[in-house]
Amino acid sequence: MRVADEVRGRLRPLIGQALAREAVFGAGAQAFGQERAREIAAAVEQLPDRQRTVFTLCHVGEQSTAEVSQALGLSEATVRVHLFRAVRKLRTLLSRERSLV
Length: 101
Description:
- It is a single chain.
- This protein is mainly α.
- The chain has helices at residues 2-22, 27-45, 49-60, 65-72, 76-100.
- The chain has a single domain (2-100), classed as Winged helix-like DNA-binding domain superfamily/Winged helix DNA-binding domain (Arc Repressor Mutant, subunit A, Orthogonal Bundle), CATH 1.10.10.
- It is built from 5 helices and no strands.
- The longest helix has 25 residues, at 76-100.
- It is elongated.
- The N and C termini lie far apart (34 Å).
- The mean pLDDT is 79.
């Protein structure tokens, strides 16, 4: 899917920027920030393609659900459903990782 590849390409630099901001808080925080960023990226990669695409466009690309619906050719309601399911799944995946630590 071309959109998913494009979104994935946009996600990598944004994670890098977040890690750079973490560097301000010191080595310990930076290590934590890098690890957390990896956990989040891994969890996002586990989402189904459509959920991953919608989540990334809305939360990383900071596009509105109306903009995403136009870009993907979906109704805005469908975009909101995919976004809700993506966030719910990410919360589950990330809380499991935290409970394993």
